[in-house]
Write a structure and sequence with these properties.
Layout: H1 20-50, H2 55-58, H3 60-83, H4 85-108, H5 112-138, H6 146-171, H7 183-204, H8 235-256, H9 258-265, H10 271-295, H11 301-320, H12 325-338, H13 341-349, H14 357-365, H15 370-382, H16 386-389, H17 393-407
Helix pairs in contact: 1-3, 1-5, 1-6, 3-4, 3-5, 3-15, 4-5, 4-7, 6-10, 8-13, 8-14, 8-15, 8-17, 9-10, 10-12, 11-12, 11-13, 11-17
């Protein structure tokens, strides 16, 4: 009897036809929150000009946005588990739209505090979307192709991140200091609120097919004893949380003062032109994601992370010297090496967590709060010298470098007492 032939390679499909509409909507969320995040860095500069706040105080914009991720991370996960992915997306879009609409009265009153409250509510929506979208994508097809779906969605996120400074430069910074009543801010956020609300209304009518979700934890090695370990007994996970905190701290500070740096040290550069260069640097970050994905076929992820951290450590030193074009190019280059840091720290931290992987994921994502705290510290130094403020991220990259060369290692832990 002739044996049945089996295919040499079983390649799972990207998704199934029944999920295409839902996949399109969920992927669009990555672009929407890319725009929302990077617009904050444009507002940082604009509020300095129009509301006459200091660089240190303008960093409270980042505190409002990134702080929302820390506050909303776990509640968004609980809501998703209780009410499902689709309602989780609708909650995120609702908060996003509400925050955008609240920017209008806050801008009319020229209230810096009111604007930050509106941005906080908006960012709670972004945090909810980010918490829901990743597992949602995972369930839209074969689990073996989930990495491809998520990589594709992050490429779309890169388009949104690039678009934010371009949109902000055109609508907001182009008007310069003549925008004394923040009219451009009101116009832009009215449009954003209407777009986001429209996406939410349409998505509420989409019938989401049953998802392919595997709730069972799969042992990652024959010696995996995670069932007997508590989450925080995994030292590599704890250090991943620390590394992510410092990583996003450096990213938030760098983005917050990019426009300030360009205007201060590049002769003749306007706010709008600096925002366009910021957008270009985010294009380098998107390129770095694809390049890093390719290189990880040949280079261990932790080693690639170490190279990226050391490179940014050196670039920050060059930036702090304010050597004209050389330092400005170095500033743009930071985003090329930023690209792989968040996902690589994330994946290394989740190794061998077993049944704790879901909760561990939430804690690592909460490291985004570093982006709320660090820009304020950099702003205090930037009040004296924007260039010297870039000495501070060197500390952050040193922590990431140590994680990449040593602290990432999975170590055995004693089983929890029964």
């Amino acid at each position: 009897m002739q044996p049945a032939l089996t295919p040499a390679v079983d390649r799972p499909a990207f998704t199934q036809s029944k999920y295409l509409v839902t996949l399109g909507f969920v992927t669009s969320l990555f672009m929407l929150w890319g725009v929302g995040i990077t617009l904050g860095d444009v507002l940082n500069r604009h509020f300095q000009q129009v509301l006459h706040v200091s660089k240190a105080d303008s960093a409270l914009v980042q505190f409002s946005i990134f702080g929302a991720y820390f506050v909303m991370g776990l509640p968004a996960g609980w809501f998703m588990n209780r009410f499902g992915y689709q309602r989780g997306v609708l909650l995120g879009l609702g908060l996003y739209a509400a925050g955008a609409f609240l920017m209008l009265p806050a801008a009319s009153a020229a209230s810096f505090g009111g604007l930050r409250i509106a941005l906080f509510i908006l960012a709670c929506g972004l945090a909810t979307l980010e918490a829901v979208a990743h597992p949602f994508l995972d369930g839209l097809g074969d689990a073996r192709s989930s990495d491809r779906r998520i990589t594709f969605a992050h490429a779309i996120n890169g388009i949104g991140a690039i678009s934010g400074p371009l949109i902000g430069g055109y609508f907001i910074l182009r008007s310069g200091t003549n925008d004394t009543d923040l009219t451009s801010v009101k116009t832009l956020y009215l449009i954003i609120g209407l777009v986001v609300a429209s996406v939410g209304i349409v998505f509420s009518f989409v019938k989401v097919p049953p998802l392919v979700v595997d709730h069972e934890a799969v042992p990652e090695s024959p010696t995996d004893t995670t069932a007997d370990k508590k989450l925080f007994q995994h030292r590599h996970f704890v250090w991943a949380c620390v590394a992510q905190l410092f990583n996003v701290a450096a990213q938030g500070g760098t983005w917050a003062f990019f426009i300030n740096y360009g205007v201060a040290y590049m002769p003749g550069m306007s706010d709008a032109q600096a925002s366009y260069f910021f957008s270009l640097s985010l294009g380098l970050m998107m390129l770095g994601r694809f390049l890093g994905t390719y290189l990880m076929q040949f280079i261990a992820p932790n080693r690639l992370l170490a190279v990226a951290a050391f490179a940014n450590l050196c670039l920050c030193f060059i930036i702090a010297q304010h050597w004209g074009c050389v330092s400005f190019v170095a500033l743009m280059g930071l985003n090329l090496f930023f690209s792989i840091m968040f996902p690589t720290i994330y994946s290394l931290g989740l190794k061998d967590l077993g049944r704790h992987k879901g909760l561990g994921s939430s804690f690592i994502v909460m490291g985004v709060v570093g982006g709320a705290l660090f820009p304020r510290l950099m702003g205090i130094v930037a009040n004296r010298s924007v260039a010297e403020a870039y000495y501070l991220p060197i500390i952050c990259y040193a922590v990431v470098f140590l994680f990449a060369i040593r602290l990432y290692r999975v170590r055995s832990a004693q089983p929890a007492a029964k």
